[in-house]
Each structure stands twice: as C-alpha cells, then as structure tokens.
Amino acid sequence: KNQVEQSPQSLIILEGKNCTLQCNYTVSPFSNLRWYKQDTGRGPVSLTIMTFSENTKSNGRYTATLDADTKQSSLHITASQLSDSASYICVVTTTTDSWGKLQFGAGTQVVVTP
Amino acid sequence: SAVISQKPSRDICQRGTSLTIQCQVDSQVTMMFWYRQQPGQSLTLIATANQGSEATYESGFVIDKFPISRPNLTFSTLTVSNLSPEDSSIYLCSVVDYPGQVFSSYEQYFGPGTRLTVT
Question: Distance between CA atoms of B34 and B61, rounded to whole angstroms?
Fold first, then answer.
C-alpha cells in the first residue's frame, strides 16, 4: 500500500478558478514534504518544500499547507492558468530514508480549460 | 540550481535489445539517482549512481538488468538490458544539490526523462 495517498486522481477546472489538491501520508519518521509539478513529457519541478515546523508555504499562485499532526497536506492553486495543466505530485521524505529514497504519491492530474 | 539533460528524449526499441540513456548535469553533483515512472504510476528509485564505484541498487532492481556508469561528477548512463514490453516506462535522472546542507532543506532536481517504448 502506498504510504502517500493523493486525491482527487484527476481534476478539471475552468481557467481563472481556484482548486485544492490533497495529500495524506502515513510515512514516518517525517522529515519533509514536497510538492512537485510535472508537465507532460517533462521531469518533476519542485514547487514547495516544508518541514514539520512549517504549516504553510507559497510559491507564486501555489500555496501548500501541512498539518504534521494529522499527516495531511494540501496544495492550493489560485486563479488557475492554462499552464497549470500538469500532474502534481506529493513527495514525503523520512529522517531515516537514504538520499533519493523519496516516498512519491501517484499524483493528481489537473486540466485547466479555457 | 542544477540543469539536467537526458538523451534520448524518447525511443522505441525491439524486445531483446538494450537502450543506454545518458544524463548530463551542468554542475558537479555528489548524489545522482535513476528513477522509473511506469504508465500512470509514481516514481520508483532504481539506483544511486556513485562516482568511481558501483551503483547502489534498490530492492527489485539488479545490475545485470540496469547497469549504470558514473565516470565523473557531471555525467551518468543507465542501460536497460534485454528489453521486454514491461520495461516501457519513463526513466528519469535526478540529482541532489549540496547534500552538505541540513538534510531537510536539500533540493532535488529531475531531468526531463526518457520515454522508452518496447515493441
């Protein structure tokens, strides 16, 4: 069973609207949580990185939240643009995992329509 | 930040052949990794490419199937050998920037990926 679960699996939104993606994890001991954006045919690009002491972090129109107690995170996209169409991947790292051993979610596929 | 390029970007190969994927980084990096992303699934770590020594493979991946070279701090290759349709995936190179930093704040960059289709 994947220790990082994302919802919804896919999402269609109108350009200009907001949306929120969810990530629940069971991974422990927790070190940090990252959100990546992966455009079709491209590698993942980091949006935000949060440690357990951070509960919100923004990167332009992207805002990530983290509740380390409930092991939940969300990624909020404000005023969506066509270029936001991509897969958004939640990634969790533990303090015991070796370098590169990241726990990846399956991703949420976001499609922004005109 | 590290800029990563991969060659080829995509390829279609016949069953039983091999494909070698190249990864080039624009700066010297200590940690370099190879991942596989099967259709509709999340990324899975194949191995850590160690400069000057053998790669370290994750459970389920073996050197005979996925030989890796790392001749210097900016370049690595991954070969997928004896191809079968199950090897059809995207293969991504990834690097960690400045691992000497506090563990929780390091940045990890990914290459654009190589899309492999085995017929």
Answer: 11
